[in-house]
Amino acid sequence: MSREGKRRDVAAAGEGGARRAGVRQLVPEAAGQPVGERASATGVVLFSALVFAVALLVVAGVGTLLAGAFTAWVALAAFLCAVLAAMSIHIAQQWERVVVLRLGKFNRVSGPGIFWTFPFLEQNAIRVDCRVRATTFDAEETLTADLVPLDVNAVLLWMVYDAKAACNEVSDFTRTVELAAQAALRDAIGRLTAAEVAIRREQLDADIKQALEDEASQWGVAVLSVKVRDILLPAALHDVMSLEAQAEQRRKARIILMEAEQDISAMAAELGEVYGGGDAALRLRAMHLLYESVRETGGTVVVPSSFSEGFGDVLPDKVKQKMAGE
Fold first, then answer.
1. 100, 88 in Cβ contact below 8 A?
2. Which CATH number applies to 135-233: 3.30.479.30, 3.40.630.10, 3.40.190.80, 3.40.50.450?
3. Among 61, 167, 208, 256, which is most exposed with the fewest C-beta within 10 angstroms?
């Protein structure tokens, strides 16, 4: 099947799942790297072809000189020597480690660079890519502790640090890591409520990473980080969760108002003690409040004439005479 056909099938499967869940789902692409940024293994193939060609030409030339002519036996000997040379000399990329078995038993881990093997006695069991890998995994309709089905998508960053264990301890370490990560995600979600899953993402990441580290270390795999990317709630619960969040915000707002009232009452009690000690201070405070109200609004305050009598003790004599004349 072509790549375009696979993409169409993946997109169709994603749309079908979205219709079943009633929400939009994100389907990650199968390829994590753009085509232009992928490492090429062409150099390894060309090196083997070069070794084969050089060995063929050298043996054919030497055989021709010894036999005096290029015969069928010389051609056959040159071909066999070239095949043996290509089977003996190998090259591994900088990020590759090659597990070599001798007569079926583990012998060594070779690479990077050029390494040798004995034809027919030793074989390259597996080439392990030791770079950091990104694997996406998800948990569909996983029940939380309060029995809410969630669709959660996450990404796992991991790498192989022990090629021997990755080859000998597990048959397909890539698939095994993916399945173990999915199981750890389901277990972590099942221990939390829906609200805790949405709020405590960092704790969820740490729980999954810890569970994977304990299990993947025996396969020679190091778990670097786990990040939860998307959490999709059922559409029927969107309004319920929204109302719950609004109620929680109202509760916090009322608590803050009550705390403010408590602080204001304490300050008012202190001010009452200060102003209760002298009537002049209380009248000066009243004048200050009156001035602030007029200054802020730019308006005019009309008070009865008897109001000025309350300031007789603090006003200058000229002001009192002027007010009395008016």
1. no
2. 3.30.479.30
3. 256
> H or E element: which one contains 80?
helix 72-88
Residues 6+ apart with CB under 8 A from 27: 10, 11, 13, 14
Q: How far apart are the two ends of the chain, measured CA to CA in Å?
A: 103
Q: Can you read off the two tokens belonging to residue 311? A: 């300031």
174: phi then psi, degrees, rounded to nearest 5: -65, -50
Q: pLDDT tens for residues 101-148? A: 999 899 999 989 899 999 889 988 889 989 999 989 888 888 888 888
Q: Which amino acid is residue 107, in one-letter code?
A: N
| Structure tokens that stand for 326 in this block | 């008016």
Q: Is 62 exposed, middle or buried (0-12, 13-18, 19+ CB in 10 A)?
A: middle
Which tokens sit at 84? 């043996």
> Which amino acid would we find at residue 67?
A
Helix axes of 72-88 and 42-67: crossing angle, nearest 10 degrees:
150
Record the pTM.
Answer: 0.61
Scan for tokens 């696979």, then name that residue.
6
What is each CA distance from 315 to 278, 282, 297, 309, in whole angstroms? 16, 14, 25, 10
Instruction: Determine the residue type at 46.
Output: L
- Measured distance CA(144)–CA(76) in Å, rounded: 69
Report CA 16 to chain centroid distance, whole Å.
Answer: 26
